[in-house]
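Anyone have tokens for Vasohibin 2? Sequence:
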Amino acid sequence: MTIPDRLLAVQNYMKELQYNHTGTQFFEIRKNRPVTGLMETAREMIRESLPIKCLEAVILGIYLTNGLAAVERFPLSFKSQFQGRCFRHVVLGVFHAGRFGALGLSRRSDLMHKPLQFRSLTDLVLDFQAAYEGYLHAVVRVKVGMAVTHDHTSFETIAWEHLSLNPMRLSPEELRSRLDRHGRDLRTKMRKGILGWPSPCREQPRGKSVSPHRTLSENPSRSSREDISFSPGVKKPLVSIALSQSGRFSRV
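Reply: yep, here.
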């Protein structure tokens, strides 16, 4: 199974879970949790097979693609405005073999999965922006994170907002320049991974139990995330599955 086929299998599995229209968030996602804690939440999503929203889909997508060392993953967030209201959305950007794409969930089909066909990060972002414009939304903020480690036991946190841009205040040339610069960083990271230096992970001292540091100031994520689309009904998949390193699905 090729890498694009594996990514499509991951996307199809998340679509089977369905987008959560209930108004109740079933899984708590705190962005400042370490990767190992977020991966435990992803395993819980698979066990429970409940509907999820866009942020939960990003965490699940990271978990299901951890075995694909040839694919770099990074968070890609959007803030849009419509009739005075703000809407936030996030997908999991992916990069492989010189092409960009995305995994995720949304009420709108053109605001989630993007196949590996975009030559640059700018082309990927502009495709999302064009989709927003089709719903009369103005994109006022684009945030691009750093590549996520493939080590599911890492105590690193995900860099969600390494690059933050306002397309309304930047010229098309400046927007492309800054996005392409970040895209080149991802390409460089991928080349290092091919040469034998995979996504970085923090070494843990042996013989000691290491737990993530949490502060009393941590705020739980919002009880729900707004999306700009709507579709009634949810459905629970009959079988929970996970993507193995060989590209095969196994029962969980």
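The chain has one domain: 3-195+223-251.
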